[in-house]
Task: inverse folding
């Protein structure tokens, strides 16, 4: 029997919501109470029900925890399974992203703070620093965003194991076409309006999230002021912000099967981090950003919260489920691609990450 | 004549990771030892503790304190602080968070 699970990482622990029908939900937790959970991956490759979580204790530092039973029981990874090598003289601050690779069921990527990418080839047991990105000559000039300086987005290309894209705040998009050995910035068309002179620099953009669409070479990006589409796998970017109530936001989601279907969760402005008009909402496009429509049924008005970079997710069911977690500890779920939402959790700590999947 | 061992006292939050152990006794070497050397010895059989107390550079984590005979080592020479034979070394989680 298939079960839908929603992993909810917060500032003070991890909760797991479960449902057999995406209508009635149970909530389990907290796991890792008082530790920050900024990254979660649900690994369903090869029929697994594994969950990985990047957990940081305020006192005892960061680690990666794993579960083989869909988040019911957890094991801490081996000692310093994810750590900077001695020659870097650098300490891991936080694991911001865990991404199972679609091309190799043993590979898991990790994006961390400070800006770095790690790769595991044993399903997340141990990780190695990706030296090609660490040694990039631009690295000293990558600036931290408000949430810290991190590789927070990793987008492998299905069918092309040599092709990987990462995004960071504030460094922009970088791509590798040789499996991570070498990297080049890839931000043509992405505006950095906060830069005093050149608003279209080679790198330094504050990219908040990138999602891979199903069109040929289709990617979508939500930036610090700016929403973009790429049709050439990130080589170039075009604004698709027209028609949105605002071009600011943190997250973007792309339909796992239908080209051109994309959601963003708009935020009023960089200086006003609340929903536009205080109405929590998602904006959906079915034509790759040419037009947008608001979806807010079941989402609260008079809402002064915010959905952070990784605090939204899709599942893989038909129709696709849409999930949002807010900074005031609510989690909303839609089982009909955003047409209507219900609250499945409330009064949690600030939600940092939401991931959803169907598991056996 | 054997020297008096150093007692490393663990905070409650770490004891669960090592089966409820609250204190680790470490034999004092004939030569003086630093906090770093003491922790190497204390954690030799409790490796999980090392990553909690020190980062991968070997530095005491920002919100962890190590007191040697009541003196805060992180305000002095850090992991280079000398630890005399017979010392009582407290590891505590700093009062922080929200």
Result:
């Amino acid at each position: 029997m298939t079960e839908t699970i929603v992993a909810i990482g917060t500032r003070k622990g991890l909760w797991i919501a479960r449902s057999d029908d995406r209508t009635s939900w149970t909530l389990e937790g907290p796991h890792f109470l008082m530790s920050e959970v900024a990254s979660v991956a649900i690994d369903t490759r090869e029929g697994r029900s594994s969950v990985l979580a990047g957990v940081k204790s305020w006192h005892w530092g960061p680690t990666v925890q794993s579960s083989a039973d869909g988040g019911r029981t957890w094991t801490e990874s081996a000692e310093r399974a994810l750590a900077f090598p001695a020659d870097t003289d650098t300490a891991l601050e936080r694991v911001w992203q865990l991404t199972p690779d679609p091309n190799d069921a043993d590979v898991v990527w990790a994006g961390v703070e400070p800006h770095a990418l790690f790769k595991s080839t044993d399903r997340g047991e141990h990780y190695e620093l990706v030296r090609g990105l660490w040694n990039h000559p631009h690295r000293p000039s990558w600036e931290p965003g408000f949430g810290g300086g991190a590789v927070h987005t990793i987008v492998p290309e299905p069918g092309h194991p040599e092709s990987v894209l990462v995004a960071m705040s504030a460094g922009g998009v970088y791509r590798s076409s040789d499996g991570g050995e070498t990297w080049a910035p890839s931000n043509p068309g992405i505006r950095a309006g906060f830069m005093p002179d050149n608003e279209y620099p080679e790198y330094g953009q504050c990219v908040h999230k990138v999602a891979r669409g199903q069109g040929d070479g289709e990617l979508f990006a939500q930036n610090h002021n700016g929403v973009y589409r790429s049709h050439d796998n990130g080589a170039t970017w075009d604004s698709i912000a027209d028609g949105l109530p605002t071009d600011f936001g943190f997250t973007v989601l792309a339909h796992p099967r239908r080209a051109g279907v994309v959601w963003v969760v708009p935020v009023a402005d960089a200086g006003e981090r609340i929903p536009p008009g205080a109405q929590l909402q998602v904006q959906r496009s079915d034509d790759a950003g040419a037009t947008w429509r608001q979806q807010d049924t079941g989402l609260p008005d008079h809402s002064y919260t915010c959905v952070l970079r990784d605090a939204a997710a899709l599942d893989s069911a038909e129709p696709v489920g849409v999930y949002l977690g807010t900074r005031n500890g609510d989690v909303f779920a839609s089982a009909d691609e955003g047409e209507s939402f219900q609250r499945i959790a409330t009064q949690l700590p600030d939600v940092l990450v939401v991931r959803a999947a169907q598991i056996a | 004549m054997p020297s008096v061992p150093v007692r490393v006292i663990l905070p409650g939050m770490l004891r669960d990771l090592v089966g409820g152990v609250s204190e680790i006794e470490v034999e004092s070497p004939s030569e003086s030892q630093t906090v770093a050397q003491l922790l190497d010895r204390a954690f030799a059989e409790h490796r999980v503790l090392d990553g909690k107390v020190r980062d991968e550079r070997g530095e005491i984590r920002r919100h962890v304190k190590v007191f040697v005979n009541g003196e805060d080592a992180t305000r002095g020479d850090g992991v280079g602080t000398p630890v005399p034979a017979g010392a009582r070394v407290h590891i505590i989680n700093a009062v922080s968070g929200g």
